Structure formats: C-alpha cells, structure tokens
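ASSEMBLY PREDICTION REQUEST
Request ID: AP-0331
Submitted by: J.K., bench scientist
Number of chains: two
Total residues: 321
Priority: normal
Notes: Please return the full assembly, not individual chains.
Input sequences:
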Amino acid sequence: MAPLAPKTGDPLFANVERVNAELFTLTYGAIVRQLLADLEEVEEVNKQLDLMGYNIGVRLIDEFLAKSNVSRCVDFKETADIIAKVGFKMFLGVTATVTNWNAEGTTCSLVLEDNPLVDFVELPDTCQGLHYCNILSGVLRGALEMVSMKTEITWVRDMLHGDDAYELQAKLVKQVPEEYPYKDDD
Amino acid sequence: MANTACFIIVSRNDIPIYEAEVGSAPKKEEAAHKHQFILHAALDIVQDLAWTTSAMFLKAVDRFNDLVVSVYVTAGHTRLMLLHDSRNEDGIKSFFQEVHELYVKILLNPLYLPGSRITSSHFDTKVRALARKYL
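STATUS: Completed
Returned structure:
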C-alpha cells in the first residue's frame, strides 16, 4: 500500500538535504544586490525576480511531488493548505498559515510569520518599492502552472515596508484542463 | 554618565560613516565641530597603534585638555572612536563590543555597501540607547 501523504512537512523537512541558513540568506541577498546594480530600476528588478522564481517553480514542483508523495488535491483550498504546510516547510523550513478565503474559494492569503530570505535586510531609501521576496511569488506561480492552475500571486503585506508579517495573495484565475500533446490520428 | 561624548565610526578608507553626539550635556555647535576635529586628528595615532597590538580595544590613544579618545578597531579596519571625559574603561569596552555587534548586523544587510554612510534609524536608536546604558 502506498505510504500516506504527509499532513505536515516536518518528516519531509528532516529528510531532504539542508544547507546553512545564513549561506542561503546571504546568497539570495547577493542575487538581489547584483540585480539592483545591473538593472537599476526597482520595477525591473521586481519583474526579473518574479521571472527567476517562475523558472525555479516549474522545476521545483516536480521535486516537491516526487519527495512528498501527496495525492491529487481535490480543490484549491486543499492546494493552498498543502503549499503552506508541506511545501514551505520542505523548502524554506517555515510554515505559512492560510487565511482570508473569499466566497468562491478562489482567492486566499498565505501569511508567513518569519522568512529566512530576509534576515538582516533593511531596505535603503532608494529601493522603497522593491519586493525583496518577489522570487517567492514567481515560484508559486510557476509551480501551480505546471499542475494546471493559472494563478496570480501578489504581495499584500511586507515586513520590510513596515508591516508585521509577510502576506501573499494567491488568486486562482483558471483551471487549465490537461491537453494531450499528441494527435491520435497520425 | 559622561557629560561629553562624541562617537564616530570611520571606515578603512578614513571616511566617517556614522557620527553621533551621545553625551548628556546640552549640545553646542562649536563643541561638536571641535569634537570631530579632535577625533580626526587622532586617526594617525590610531593607525600606528593598531598594528602594534592584536587586541581590538585600544584604550586611550590621545588626550586633549581633559577629553580622552578611546578607539576600538575591528577586523576590517573599521575604527569605532569615542571622545569622552569619563574614566569608566570597562563600560566603554562593553559599549564598543555591543556597537561592533550592531555594525556586523548592518554589514550582513546585502543592500548595504560597505564603506558607505549608515543611514539606518534603527541603528542610530540602538547606539544612543547603548550609550545611555554604558557611558
């Protein structure tokens, strides 16, 4: 019988390879700093981080599904729960909470109390519009697109701009049915 | 509690990256300029002295009337300099060590260019609180 899908990410987190948290934080910081130096425009950097996250997400979803053994999610609500409890725990070591469901169940907020990417970071005055963790929104968007869900992810609250937590809003735009890639009558 | 105390951080290129008057006496304009002048004049002495010892805390390196200059040199040759009139050496050493820790946290910020001015108001508040506590 197949092993039961985990409800929390803790056993998975214990099994995956880990890297030093400070190395991870400093490497991400170096990426952001280099992007700021190369692109100079804060909006461009935000877009580039999102694109990088998208590319990571489309590959990350395969690793996630392979390691975590979750079964197909029934609806978007379950998807969001799995992302918050299992996904974030497995890759970042923190859990998020899911709140703010709208009436149809297509929009929710993922709230992160602490975020390893932003240790020690303080935004200078020249970069006030920067979404420092924009890579996360790209990762979520890419990963969900690979499992047939088109979503829009935006930042609602950001601790670097003075709020008290990190809040991502995930909006399900459309469930894309799987397309069979080959035509049958060749 | 020191009546006059002027604290500056000078980078390895001899550019001041942070300054604060942390004494408890009322601030006077000429006094502030005089303090900065005295601290900059002490830089030459600090440079020579820093190479003679492996300790980070160089005690009193220079004197002007009754004001003493104490310096703490970090591993990256950033000098934390304090101009004061008190004799509380242990307090000053603890103050320097705590400011050093705050400085390291600033350095870990990837968006901070080492050697540029420290503009974080959070850092400023903390340094003044430490000055009230230790000096």
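REVIEWER COMMENTS: The two ends of chain B are 5 Å apart (CA to CA).
SIGN-OFF: pending second reviewer
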